[in-house]
Amino acid sequence: MNIVEKILARASGRENVSPDDIIFADIDKVMVHDVSGPGVIKVFDKLKKQGVNVDKLWDPSKVWVAEDHFVPSADKISAENIVKLQNFTKNYGIKKHFKYGMGQYGICHTLSHEEALVLPGEVYVGGDSHTNTTGALGAFACGLGHTDIAYVLLNGKIWFKVPETLYFKLNGKLPDHVMAKDLILKIIGDIGTDGGAYRTMQFGGSGIDEMSVEGRLTLCNMTTEAGAKNGIVEPDQKIVNYLTTRGVTNIALVKGDPDAEYSEVFEYESSEMEPIVAKPFSPENTVIVREAPNVDLDKSYIGSCTGAKYEDLEAAAKILKGRKVKIRTEVLPAAISIYKRAMENGLLKIFLDAGATVGPPTCGACCGAHMGVLAKDEICISTTNRNFPGRMGHVESQTYLASPLVAAASAVTGKITDPRDLD
Amino acid sequence: MKGNVIKYERDNIDTDVIIPGQYLKIHDYAELASHAMEGLDPAFHSKVKEGDFILSGKNFGCGSSREHAPIALAHSGIKAILALSFARIFYRNAVDGAFLLPIEIDEIAYKNISEGDEIDIDISSNQIKNITKNQSYQMKPFSEIIGKIIEAGGLFKYKPD
Hints:
Oligomer: heterodimer
Number of strands of chain A: 18
Largest interface: A-B, 49 and 38 residues
Number of helices of chain B: 7
CATH architecture of the largest domain in chain A: 2-Layer Sandwich
Largest sheet of chain A: 5 strands, parallel
Radius of gyration of chain A: 21 Å
CATH class of the largest domain in chain A: Alpha Beta
Distance between the termini of chain B: 28 Å
Shape of chain A: globular
Helix content of chain B: 25-40%
Helix content of chain A: 25-40%
CATH class of chain B: Alpha Beta
């Protein structure tokens, strides 16, 4: 069995599972946020009217809650959703609720790794499609809708079809001007937005050995854009160190068997990669940065679970240090812990000196919700994950998806720019 | 199950056009329905009728896990989506929440069914009859668990064996 099959076999109490088996898996961790949470509350209200007992959750200690999409509250409805969420966690005894304005908070997927909320070998489901992110720690991490999450909260399990696994073998360390974001855009460009549909995308090889934990998180994060059920990397010493520095002890490393089977293997020479952007209006619409259209950009956005982890900010700061931005540039660290580290290490000063605005953690503009949405005809280069029509604002705005290095270099020139081509 | 078809001849209809992100804070179903398909077809809300079906290409519902997407469509009156394929979370949400039926069709059905055609979907025989054109097509049968969840009326009513 490969790693996903091993995790799902353990969680469903079976000795073996194979692709296409239907299982009910016990869930180790579950997450809701300020969009999926009120959805769950509505499902609970409906169930209550039907006579279903919703007085208790199966295990509140396995549940955690994030406030991220519409915070700081964008308007009255968003504020009311936050109040609903607070009442929910209070009523059900959920202790892990990361509230904005009260210490550590941030984008749910970022918290999952910053706070070591999910461990290798666990089955983790979240009410958000980018739950795939956390597979980088060696967990089976999968996004679900709020009815399914409500079911998990009451029953502690959910059905899955055991996925086939696509294995991506990455050869060699990425060059300095290339990030994991470029690599995952390249892969999505090759296999398409349904290329991983219903399947696991697993990453391995020397390119993974050489890659930081945060780079792996970026890869797994955007398996969602290939339609994958989950993304995963077998945990190694880097994961152990990452979790140990966050206070975790007794880490068990689940790995696939030597004779594990994969439905397809793809090989990439990661050491020869080029910076890439995805043009509007699909993450699969990729082009090498040096061949990208010569458009006048209106904005550079450095934010989201995909592109505002600490290393993402560090990469942007490397470019912006001593330079000035030519277009509107917004930097929103993905969690308070990252914001703080960026402040302590001087990154925020670099951004501010360059002329950029630094904002609080939020999913805000990434999903066109608030705080930096695009006007008609505006063109943005962004470290986020999707660029469908209207994703970041007006349906006739445009988003180019890029790495933090490319987004920062483009902020300096106002054109889509390879970081190597800056003066 | 009879109804008329609204056809979008394209692949990858994503959740951002089905219900744009700015509306994710809304949990009133009627209000969500009033914004359904806003990112692709602003006329959708005025033309959709109770019992209509949507016909589309590959990877329908790709993108976000927002259950607002099947909710907005179902509360607009849509009873089923016919598509060459579906994105997985949209498919699960449609079935587990018992909002609408995701029907997988083949290229023949996709090419031959036109906007406005009246069709009759029979999930017990996996047949789609085109009443307007007097044709019939096969739909892909539901997998066992999906069939059972649909029959039960959603995941909460389904009793695992």
